[in-house]
Amino acid sequence: MLHRRRLGPQGRGVVASAAACVLLAACSPDLVPLEDQDLSGADRAACEALVDDLPDTLAGEPRRSVDPDDALGAAWGDPAYVLTCGVPAPTDYEPTAECNVIKGVGWYVTDDELSDLRVDAAPIALSLTPYVEVQVPSRYRTEGVDRALAELAPALKEHLGEGLSCL
């Protein structure tokens, strides 16, 4: 047989506090998840310095919180531009690959991403190392990509070393 007990004032306070926490969590903006990269100590240090120096806004979009908060990357806007430092070189890269050079940084983009503006793009800064990838939602493809990559260039050039050459 089930016995019910009434909550006293203290019990109701605990329930009310728990409900408030749930509501606040539901109202707070979502964290952007980032994967951890397996890097050498030097590459990790370069990525950490880069992330600390990234702008508060990118292409007019405000910076967002990421998960984990010490991730080697950053995010801006909704949908989010997502920068990840320390990604591997793309598997389809060849020494004769073409790059888009923006403010002195060579960005590699696959042919599929170049030809279809309806898909998200993920340019990788191959001319610098450790490699940096920026996921660009399709919403920003026509006007925000070049601006965002240009705004990132100074920090990337300051904190990263020389990478692969692109044509």
> Which spans of ≥5 residues are poorly predicted at pLDDT below 50?
1-28
- Rounded to an integer in angstroms, the radius of gyration calculated over CA atoms is 21 Å
Quaternary structure state of the chains depicted: single chain
SSE pattern, N- to C-terminal? HEHEEEEEEEHEEEHE
Number of helices: 4
Largest sheet: 8 strands, antiparallel
Give the beta-strand count. 12
The tally of domains stands at: 1
How much helicity do the residues have? Answer: 25-40%
Mean pLDDT: 83
Report the β-strand fraction as a percent range: 15-25%
Distance between the termini: 78 Å
Structural class: alpha+beta
Strand order of the largest sheet: 2-3-5-6-11-9-8-7
Tell the overall outline. globular
Primary descriptors:
single chain, 167 residues, alpha+beta, 8-stranded antiparallel β-sheet, two-stranded parallel sheet, 4 helices, 12 strands, 31% helix, 22% strand, globular
Structure description:
This protein has one domain. Helix 2 (41-53) packs across helix 4. The protein is built from four helices and twelve strands. 31% of the residues lie in helices and 22% in strands. It is globular and about 35 Å long. The chain has an eight-stranded antiparallel beta sheet with strand order 2-3-5-6-11-9-8-7. It has a two-stranded parallel sheet with strand order 1-4. It has helices spanning 9-27, 41-53, 111-115, 145-159; strands at 32-33, 57-58, 61-64, 66-67, 73-76, 81-85, 100-102, 105-108, 124-125, 128-129, 132-135, 161-162. With 167 residues, the protein is α+β, with helices and mostly antiparallel strands. This is DUF3515 domain-containing protein. Pfam families: DUF3515 (PF12028). InterPro entries: DUF3515 (IPR021903).
